């Protein structure tokens, strides 16, 4: 038997499980021509379940724990199918994750070398297990001459990042098949028949494109943008539709802010999918707030046109992590069938249009865990769209491009990197080639002859003098002037925003607003709604918004005046994209300024930037300004950004093949677990804090968390009122004051203690300010007795 009884009382015969997984895995791998190797992995992945110790475990699971039923299946592949290494690794890792692949892999799988101090092998005699499998009616393919479609290569035949992705894709097909067949067993009805979940809805790109183009036409008709901007958007759309006829591969989409990139890129994807028979579209966006907004727009767009019985949230699948909830949660929350189905689709991306985060997409692409890798096989033969690609961390760029290049070349996907400030990834081509076999050579969707950037010279930028150093008071005095009564000021740190806002308040400036990640999403959305409404007012009341970088990407604002503290050139350009966005002025005004150095009471300089990488990029921008001078520093000129990125890569050593990072070293050693640990888009560990921004919602959610514990449903409801905060020390005043949330299971029985990631803000501390948001400094007042 493979599994214990389902609720219906039926056991799961091992033969049924192995053949079921083999057929499913083979069908999944057919998308990239690896049917036979996937089928082999399916037939052998649970070979150890024929062992006597596993049979005893099924009879008495409390007594027989930590029984290894997978290693002997991998050992069988290593012994008899030496040209099927991907099947070997997939079988070995389908429970605990992919192991390192090197010349010693086979030796580590050998039962004679197995360390049984942590787990016991269900059986050490491989020949006995294979004989039992034959007696069960399962015939394996003849070993002589068997060559896996993926694993049949030698280590020297393929570059490391490409090989690792190839192996992950076969691993993905196996683990998804294993999950699905096991799930089908436990869903047996009274008739004893396994019930596989239904497949997700198809993309149907032709009608989806028609719906989208009608929507774009409606937006253009109702637009308050200038005729020039509307024409530019129309030209970009046409360029995307024309380029969609191109053969699948790697693409860039370089277009200015406000040119309609997001919808035009989706139009490219749908037409491209129709033209080439691609299976799904994956939209990858770096910011959660933009994902939620984009997914909502798409659902509302397609909902009226979907076939009867297809729900919008199943056609447009919104997927991002639920912080604090683990892959191996065994308890199910009470959910509607529709929500349970949506969660099922999220597990393996069996949906036509997926909107997800950069973290969810890219970290899965470099993961070693079954849960994260499970969805990867769905990417084969898909269109993968990356928006705001300039946010990709420099130290991950070469490995990421190598992986995406392999996804395109080997697995038939088209990848589009879109931004207004296209990085000079071609400077990394040598390193990309050394990691992934192929140089980085994408095709640009928007042809240079369109002159998109030259046509949107909507702003005039005033650059700082080399010796400039303005205090927050000086910046505030300028913003308080009548000609700046409708202005956006973007700074690099929350402290700087607070200081400028305080000075503006002292000066009595009108129309003051603030945005930062210290504010919960509901608070930020309310502020943005108020600001947009005031900006649309023809009476032109004052609107002065002081913000951190959270306003710079994906936030549709149109100010006549923008002030931007010195930072990376990409950040300056993004801030400028909020100035004269709709082109209704002859020229908007962008003032870039340098804040003076501040010092602590002890005389130490305070940091001016969020982290070292950001500071290096800011310094690189200064080098470019000094090199080409202010008159030539055109933020609408792609060549300026290529020069900036080349400088950043030079400073950080990213373009030098000899300067290898820890991540790249782990990739060259094919160490799957180490690669997964090192590939992190966000290094800082964070906690989530439920805030009393909305007192009524806070009281309800806080009590619900205390009574029912942390659930996915609660997280979804609490997210609008939650702030993310860098994890303090365990003995800090903040951690001592925050109330942890219990993890409870069915029947409200505690099964996991307190969540390490989710907390409730003490309401009595007044730590949430209705202007500035969450204020950690207020914690001192709470702890004074």
The profile of the biggest β sheet is: 7 strands, parallel
Low-confidence parts lasting 5 or more residues at pLDDT below 50?
322-335, 746-751, 781-785
DSSP strand count: 21
Main sheet strand line-up: 5-6-4-7-8-3-9
Can you describe what's shown?
α2 packs across α8. α17 links the parallel β7 and β8. The chain is globular, with a radius of gyration of 28 Å. A seven-stranded parallel β-sheet has the order 5-6-4-7-8-3-9, with helices on both faces. It has a six-stranded parallel β-sheet with strand order 10-15-14-11-13-12, sandwiched between helices. Strands 17-16-19-18 form a four-stranded mixed β-sheet. It is 43% helix and 12% strand. The protein is α/β, with parallel strands linked by helices. It starts with 13 loop residues before the first helix and ends with a helix. 48% of the residues are buried. The C terminus is likely disordered. The longest helix has 27 residues.
């Amino acid at each position: 038997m493979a599994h214990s009884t389902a609720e219906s009382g039926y056991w799961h015969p091992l033969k049924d499980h192995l053949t079921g997984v083999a057929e499913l895995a083979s069908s999944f791998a057919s998308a990239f021509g690896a049917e036979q190797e996937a089928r082999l992995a399916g037939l052998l992945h649970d070979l150890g379940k024929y062992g006597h110790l596993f049979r005893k475990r099924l009879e008495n699971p409390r007594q027989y724990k930590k029984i290894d039923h997978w290693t002997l299946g991998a050992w069988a592949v290593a012994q008899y199918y030496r040209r099927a290494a991907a099947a070997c690794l997939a079988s070995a890792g389908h429970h605990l994750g992919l192991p390192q692949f090197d010349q010693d892999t086979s030796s580590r799988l050998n039962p004679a070398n197995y360390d049984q101090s942590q787990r016991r092998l269900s059986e050490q005699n491989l020949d006995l297990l294979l004989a039992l499998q034959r007696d069960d009616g399962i015939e394996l393919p003849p070993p002589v001459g068997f060559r896996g479609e993926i694993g049949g290569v030698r280590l020297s035949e393929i570059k490391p990042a490409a090989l690792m992705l190839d192996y992950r894709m076969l691993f993905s097909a196996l683990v998804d098949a294993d999950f699905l067949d096991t799930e089908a067993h436990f869903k047996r009805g009274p008739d004893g028949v396994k019930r596989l979940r239904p497949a997700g809805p198809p993309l149907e790109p032709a009608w989806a494109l028609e719906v989208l183009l009608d929507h774009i036409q409606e937006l253009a008709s109702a637009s308050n943008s200038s005729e020039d901007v509307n024409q530019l958007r129309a030209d970009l759309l046409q360029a995307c539709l024309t380029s969609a006829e191109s053969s699948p591969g790697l693409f860039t989409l370089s277009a200015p802010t406000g040119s309609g990139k997001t919808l035009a890129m989706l139009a490219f994807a749908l037409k491209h999918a129709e033209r080439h028979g691609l299976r799904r579209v994956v939209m990858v966006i770096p910011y959660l707030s933009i994902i939620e907004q984009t997914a909502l727009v798409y659902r509302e767009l397609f909902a009226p046109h979907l076939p009867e019985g297809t729900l919008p949230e199943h056609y447009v699948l919104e997927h991002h992590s639920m912080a604090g909830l683990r892959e191996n949660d065994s308890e199910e929350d009470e959910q509607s069938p529709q929500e349970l189905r949506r969660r099922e689709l999220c597990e393996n991306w069996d949906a036509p249009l997926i909107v997800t985060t950069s973290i969810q997409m890219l970290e899965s692409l470099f993961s070693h865990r079954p849960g994260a890798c499970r969805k990867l096989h769905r990417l084969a033969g898909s269109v993968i769209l990356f928006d705001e690609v300039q946010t990709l961390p420099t130290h991950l760029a070469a490995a990421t491009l190598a992986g995406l290049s392999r996804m395109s070349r080997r697995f038939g996907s088209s990848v589009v990197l879109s931004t207004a400030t296209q990085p000079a990834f071609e400077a990394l081509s040598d390193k990309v080639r050394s990691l992934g076999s192929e140089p980085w050579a994408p095709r640009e969707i928007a042809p240079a002859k369109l002159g998109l950037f030259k046509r949107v010279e909507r702003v005039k930028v005033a650059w700082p003098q080399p010796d400039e150093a303005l205090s927050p008071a000086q910046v505030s005095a300028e913003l308080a002037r009548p000609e700046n009564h409708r202005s956006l000021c973007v700074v690099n740190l929350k402290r700087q925003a607070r200081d400028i806002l305080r000075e503006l308040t002292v000066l009595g400036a009108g129309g003051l607003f603030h945005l930062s990640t210290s504010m919960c999403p509901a608070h930020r959305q309310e502020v943005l709604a108020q600001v947009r409404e005031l900006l649309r007012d023809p009476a032109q009341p004052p609107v002065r918004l002081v913000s951190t970088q959270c306003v710079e990407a994906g936030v549709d604002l149109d100010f006549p005046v923008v002030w931007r503290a010195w930072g990376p050139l990409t950040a300056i350009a993004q801030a400028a994209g909020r100035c004269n966005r709709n082109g209704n002025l002859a020229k908007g005004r962008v003032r870039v300024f340098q804040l003076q150095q501040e010092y602590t009471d002890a005389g130490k300089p305070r940091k001016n930037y969020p982290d070292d990488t950001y500071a290096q990029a800011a310094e690189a921008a200064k080098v470019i300004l000094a090199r080409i001078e202010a008159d030539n520093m055109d933020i609408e000129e792609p060549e300026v950004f290529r020069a900036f990125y080349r400088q950043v890569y030079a400073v950080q050593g990213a373009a030098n093949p000899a300067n290898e990072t820890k991540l790249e070293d782990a990739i060259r050693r094919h160490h799957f677990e180490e690669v997964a640990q090192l590939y992190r888009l966000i290094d800082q560990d964070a906690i989530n804090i439920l805030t009393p921004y909305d007192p009524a919602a806070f009281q309800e959610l806080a009590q619900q968390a205390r009574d029912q514990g942390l659930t996915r449903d609660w997280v979804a409801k609490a997210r609008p009122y939650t702030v993310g905060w860098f994890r303090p020390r365990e003995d800090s005043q903040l951690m001592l004051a925050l109330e942890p949330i219990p993890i409870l299971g069915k029947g409200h029985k505690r099964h996991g203690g307190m969540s390490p990631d989710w907390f409730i803000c003490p309401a009595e501390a007044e730590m949430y300010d209705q202007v500035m948001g969450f204020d950690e400094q207020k914690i001192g007042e709470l702890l004074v007795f």
